[in-house]
Amino acid sequence: MSHDSPPPRDTRHALPMALLRAREAVMTRFRPMLAAHDINEQQWRVIRVLGEVDSLDATEVAVRANILAPSLTRMIKAMTERGLISRARDASDGRRVMLSIAPQGRALLQAVAPDSTAIYQQLEADYGPARTAQLIEMLIALADLAEPQLDKTPDLN
């Protein structure tokens, strides 16, 4: 390290550490609910993403759910066996894996919705609705800085 460079920020004020602590503060509230439904955080993100669409290419699911492609590949079989998602080959391109939410996955979304809503409401009450909305918009803008890099996501074939 050169004598001219400023010292590194203390970890409390380092952006990556602050983001990790904030994520942990939020997820600590959600983990018990997910555990009660026998689902982990990554599986829940896949269910949430697929609950918003008819079907998606597996690579796009990985990107939208913030899951590494190899991790999603490992999860697909287990989630399919549990009846949470459906897997099919793309009719126009047999190399592409298309995923969709299965009836049990949709039922899980509906079962979790009341608890999830209550957690979000408590977070907003604790942090403030306006601050929560502003934080989400700021985090979206920050994440959007990485968009060009998302095109380099490994293929799931």
UniProtKB/TrEMBL annotation:
This one is known as Homoprotocatechuate degradation operon regulator HpaR
Tell me the InterPro entries matching this sequence: HpaR/FarR (IPR012712), HTH_MarR-typ (IPR000835), MarR/SlyA-like (IPR039422), WH-like_DNA-bd_sf (IPR036388), WH_DNA-bd_sf (IPR036390)
* Entry superkingdom: Bacteria
Q: Where is the HTH marR-type domain?
A: 12-144
Tell me the PROSITE patterns matching this sequence.
HTH_MARR_2
- Organism per entry: Cypionkella sinensis
